[in-house]
Design a protein that fits this description.
This protein is mostly helical. It contains four helices and two strands.
Length: 107
């Protein structure tokens, strides 16, 4: 198992964030473990007390399709929350996402 330096971890996280890919797909493509990405993400969020990142879990019973673009096709803001929407999102997932955002915005 390879050991990554803090700089390497930060760079890999940055690449993942800008990729538009799921953690699983990115980890497979990049050759790192999905668990490592998750741990690094939690550690990076914990180190920044001003971080506004809050994980939001939206599930769908259909299999996720790979993103067709690394650039969002839309950006939705609900209160102080903002989410980028990428090509390939299903209507069902978008509905679940917007519903979850509404609930978060009212908390």
């Amino acid at each position: 198992m390879r050991h990554y330096t803090p700089d390497e971890r930060a760079r890999i996280l940055s690449e993942w964030r800008s990729s538009g890919m799921t953690r699983k797909a990115f980890a497979q493509q990049r050759g790192v473990s999905q668990g490592s990405l998750t741990v690094w993400l939690k550690q990076s969020s914990a180190k920044d007390p001003n971080s506004s990142f809050r994980p939001l879990v939206v599930s769908d019973t259909t299999e996720a399709k790979p993103m067709t673009s690394a650039h969002p096709v839309a950006e939705v803001s609900v209160g102080s929350l903002r989410v980028r929407i990428y090509a390939g999102i299903t209507d069902k997932v978008l509905t679940l996402l917007l519903s979850a955002l509404r609930k978060e915005a009212t908390c």
